[in-house]
Specification:
about 65% helix
Length: about 140
């Protein structure tokens, strides 16, 4: 499957006001965000324009990148980021058992429930998807 593109409002943690500000800058989708904000200078500029921390901008970019993976999308991009996986390229290189352990650890810490953790076959699908989109030449 090809990399997935999402409306910016589907990325967790971006407020309505920030979505409007991003739209005013021509950033309406995750692909727009990844295309327009690449360099440290562009990240700092966006941070200042929106009056948000650089950490938030980096978080949005990481989630937009992870959301490109078809089976991850906006549903799991935040989970992966908070589990310590910051990009689709990083996910593509990780062993299933390592990703599963990190995600399960996070689920137990946050929710006190290991049974809500995605199973290994779902995580294998994420990793395979990340590998596939890594092979596709993109403009990001």
């Amino acid at each position: 499957m090809p990399p997935q593109n999402w409306h910016i409002q589907q990325i967790p943690g971006i407020s309505q006001q920030q979505q409007t500000q991003l739209a005013n800058l021509g950033i309406a989708t995750t692909f727009d965000l990844l295309r327009h904000i690449r360099t440290p200078a562009q990240k700092r500029t966006l941070s200042k324009r929106l009056a948000v921390s650089l950490r938030d901008v980096n978080k949005w970019l990481a989630m937009a990148d992870l959301a490109r993976v078809p089976a991850v999308g906006c549903q799991y991009c935040g989970l992966l980021l908070h589990a310590g996986i910051g990009s689709a390229a990083q996910l593509a290189t990780m062993p299933i058992q390592h990703v599963h352990a990190q995600v399960q650890r996070l689920q137990v810490q946050q929710l006190r429930r290991a049974d809500l953790c995605p199973d290994r076959s779902q995580i294998a699908t994420w990793i395979q998807g990340a590998k596939q989109i890594s092979k596709i030449s993109s403009s990001f």
